[in-house]
């Protein structure tokens, strides 16, 4: 069953050991931990019921594993796309986020981190390209906390300070020529 409504389910991957320790993940490539695998299965069951035609994932294995769970449950394919890659935290990848903030005042101020503006521009460009390439709906995009938050804030400026818990999902719908955020930071039961 495909939908004529242009709808995207933007998901975040399940938990990793780095998430659990409050560390910046970025381009590090840890696997899902036991909690993350269970979260991915619950997310997959929920999103499969929305009948996605394709699942597109960041290339990092925590996202790919989550995307594979969703695609298997929905009996569809996973496409890996580098444009959904996580924020580059440079030399601070793997560092405790609170320590980086204590030292520099914010993650954004730490030297070598992909700037918030560059991330926001990259993510919006990627989203626009991915939805332009889609010809059937709905689509699931599986990415990362920083990526999802940057995109949601660009689509709805009222969403500049929201969370993206592990294995959460967001519903985006195209209507009246604009993408709207219908739901954000939703967790499966």
Automatic annotation (TrEMBL):
Gene3D superfamilies: Phosphoglycerate mutase-like. Pfam families: His_Phos_1. Substrate binds at residues 12-19, 62, 97. It comes from the Bacteria. Keywords: Glycolysis, Isomerase. GO terms for cellular component: cytoplasm. SUPFAM superfamilies: Phosphoglycerate mutase-like (SSF53254). GO terms for molecular function: phosphatase activity. This is Histidine phosphatase family protein. It comes from Rhodococcus opacus.
């Amino acid at each position: 069953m495909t939908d004529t409504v242009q709808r995207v389910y933007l998901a975040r991957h399940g938990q990793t050991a780095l998430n659990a320790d409050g560390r910046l993940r970025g381009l590090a490539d840890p696997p899902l931990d036991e909690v993350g695998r269970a979260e991915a299965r619950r997310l997959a069951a929920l999103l499969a019921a929305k009948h996605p035609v394709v699942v597109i994932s960041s290339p990092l294995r925590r996202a790919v594993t989550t995307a594979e769970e969703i695609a298997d449950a929905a009996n569809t394919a996973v496409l890996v796309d580098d444009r959904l890659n996580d924020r580059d935290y440079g030399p601070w990848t793997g560092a405790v986020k609170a320590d980086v903030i204590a030292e520099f005042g914010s993650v954004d101020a730490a030297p070598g981190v992909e700037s918030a503006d560059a991330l926001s521009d990259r993510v919006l460009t990627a989203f626009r390209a991915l939805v332009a390439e889609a010809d059937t709906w709905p689509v699931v995009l599986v990415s990362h906390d920083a990526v999802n938050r940057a995109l949601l804030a660009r689509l709805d400026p009222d969403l500049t300070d929201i969370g993206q818990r592990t294995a959460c999902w967001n519903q985006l719908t195209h209507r009246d020529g604009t993408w709207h955020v219908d739901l954000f930071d939703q967790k499966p039961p």
